[in-house]
Amino acid sequence: MAENSNQQPLLEFLSELETSFALSVPVCLNFVPSFLMEMQNGLVQHLSNEHLQMLASHVTTRPTGSEQGKCLSMDLGGTNFRICLYDFDQSKYPTSGYFILKRQKYLISNSVKTNGLLIDWMAYCTLQFLNDYYVDLQDLETETSSSSAPSNSNSDSKETFRCGLTFSFPIKQSSISSGILQSWTKGFQGPEIVGKDIVSLFQQKLDEKGANIKIVAITNDTVSLLVASGYFNQSSQMSIIIGTGNNGCYWESLHNVKKLGHEAPESTKGKEMVINIEWGAFDNSNAIIPLSKFDKSLHDSSPTPGFQKLEKMISGLYIGEIVRIILEDLVSSGLIFSESSLISPTVFSPYALDTEVVSKILSFPFTENKRFPLAESNSVEDFTRLGSLETLREIIKSNIYSDPSDLELYVIYRVCSVVTFRAMILCSLAASSVLLKRPDVLSLDHSPVPRIIGIEGSVYNNIPGFSSVLSFVVNNVVKAHIIAQKNQNKITSNNQTIITPFNVFETFELDNLLTDPTSASEKSKQLVNFNFVDGGCILGTAILALIA
Question: Which stretches make up the Hexokinase C-terminal domain (predicted)?
Answer without folding.
Answer: 238-479
